[in-house]
Hints:
Blueprint: E1 4-5, E2 23-24, E3 57-65, E4 71-79, E5 84-89, E6 93-95, E7 99-108, E8 114-123, E9 126-132, E10 135-137, E11 144-146, E12 150-159, E13 165-173, E14 178-188, H1 232-245, H2 251-270, H3 291-294, H4 303-319, H5 336-351, H6 358-371, H7 379-394, H8 414-425, H9 432-445, H10 448-460, E15 463-465, E16 487-489, H11 503-517, H12 524-533, H13 543-548
Parallel strand pairs: 1-4, 2-14, 6-14
Antiparallel strand pairs: 3-4, 5-7, 7-12, 8-11, 8-13, 9-10, 9-12, 13-14, 15-16
Amino acid sequence: LKPGVVAPPPQPTPLGQEPAVQVRSDFRSTILWLPDLITDANGNASVKIKYPDSLTTWVTTARLATAGNQFGIGNASTRTKQPLIVRLEAPRFFVVGDQVTVSGVINNNTDQTMTVASLLRAEGLTVNGLIIDGKLVKGEQLPIEVKPNSEARVDWLVAVTAAREVKLKVEAHGDKYADAMEKTFRVYEHGVEKFISRSGKMRGDSVAIKLDIPKERRPETTGLVVQIAPSMATTMLDALPYLIDYPYGCTEQTMSRFLPAAITAKTLRDLGMKPEDAMESVFGGIEPDTALATHPKGQRDLKELDRITKASLDRLYNFQHADGGWGWWKDGDSDHYMTAYVLWGLTLARQAGIEVKPDAAARAVSYLDKELVEEEANYDEQAWMLHALAVYRANTGPAPAGTAGVPPALSVTKFQATAFDNLFTNRDRLNAYTRALLALAAHDFGYADKAMTLIQNLENGVKIDAKPDTSIVQQGAQSSDPSVMGTAHWGEDGVYWRWSEGGVEATAFVLRALLAIDPQHKLIEPVTNWLVKNRRGAQWSNTRDTAIV
Length: 549
């Protein structure tokens, strides 16, 4: 690492010739990151690099590791400089309607006085003129004298007229030397970005929707997007590519890929459509402008479901521990939450007609049943475990064709009964997510009255928005369009600390409880509407949210 000056001073321009201008536009702060450089037998290595256009001091750091156990570190500095420098001084961005002073700072780094002419060129902005002694002056800047090893400043007034990407280039020409600097800036609209949305359910052949569009808008920035979903299955299919393309590794992520694939296949069958009949039906994103960000491999067809199911099941079987549980990874201790998640998923998969190894589920049941008492003070965790056991119990009966070795319907064990009594007794201390899990467990255990009591408790805590198309930011009178469907949900809307407090998962499980216990409940439609409207594109906020919804 040898310090030095990288760029030698330009040679003076011969008399009668205009000095050449090299426009500087590359202002990276890091020049090179090379993690795999190998030295020769003498410990030497060389790298050729091109320095950016910043005129400053650069620090090089080299870290060395030998094939043995020797390590080292070294630093050196280099400097890039020029006899004449011009620096552009401007805001980081502009706003339409701005009248802004843009400056060029000229540095004379020689030992002699230099006469310098400066010029500002603009693309996308209007240069109104120079500012001299605080006054606007038309015309070009006359040459100015810059003393040795000192600086001078030239100011221009620019006007911003439209939102776009703009360029500014400042030039300085001396007697012998020249320099130029160019930068790109973003111009933003003066105002706020406003979305006006309407959503509803068509109950006839047509629907008319009225939109109140602000008069003061810029017409060229106004856009209209209409999205139509012919069935709820479309919403499910649109979310699958996000889960398919996610870089899976741990147990939770594998489950979040496998479970929706199994449920979607079952839903299609329940709707009277075999997945095989829909193999050529593509899915892959409801937002054309942003689909590539969430679906980088483009649209998929339903052939992916079989491959995902087989690969995910194999991975889950491989991750199961000797005690029957699952952890976040193959190694490490078994985790109560993760084991219950997998058991629930395997049970739903079996409901969907997928062949599941019965011993894998039975071992997980044995593990969870023994561990239930460990979570008697942690209501969220105990309810999650109990819910998975109850689902398994309620759906352990005749096996699908070709599946053998599944035990007959199981009884409620003393540990499960104790856990249920503990949660039901303390139901006033449960949040919406945990109440929904307990209601599902009561339903699967055959406790119909207690299940209905928990549904009534959930009704009391619902958050209803009868006019979701009106803005809480806008002040004054507002009216909701009659075609707009209301929404209903549970859980926290903003930041939350515990997994059971999140609005998306909590609302999804309450919906599941409503459908199981009271399928004609008046909240089912607005709850479904809230879930559909709270997507981020074609999916929800993360893999587990998306899988569970």
